Model the fold of this input.
Amino acid sequence: MFTGIVEEMGEVVSCTIEGNTAKLTVRAGIVHAGTQLGDSIAINGCCLTVVALAGAELTFDAIPETLSRTNLGALVPGSPVNLERSLEVGARLGGHFVQGHIDGVGGVVSLTTAENAVVMEISIPNRLHRYFVEKGSIAVDGVSLTVVDVNADSFTVWTIPHTRAVTTLGIRNVGDIVNIECDMLGKYVERLIAEPNRK
Done:
């Protein structure tokens, strides 16, 4: 479980893709502290398990399901990535409950400056559209944000200077692919309504 409050931007050291799997190594200045084998780290919002440690470098395995649903397969050495350690019991929940289970990817459609904010419009896969509500929560590349507008095939979020400075959202351009995780509450409610009497 995560909060969508990114702790730092790490840097990809290597990403070796073999068929539909990958081995990803990331250099982390903060999140490596206290991290042990088997710990969960969100990389661009995707929960991965630490399988090797070497100083500040953390290595992860990505399975076919992960590569098919996320933007991790496009990473190359030098790519910046958002990093967050799993939530500790008793810690402040500054964002919203984020599982690190990516629902799909979207594309940056437009970037518009509005005073000190940048409005990002991001395309929505049709199968995920029903989970977006105005002023609802969304995680984009692991960053907890508030949905402002929901359009026919896209949504908008407004990003403040701090968010752009400390996450990869500040370097995203039109056409870039981002990971999307919808609010888990909507998915559970949908399931319960669909099968209310199943035993």
Q: What stands out?
A: The mean pLDDT is 93. The chain is about 10% helix and 45% strand.
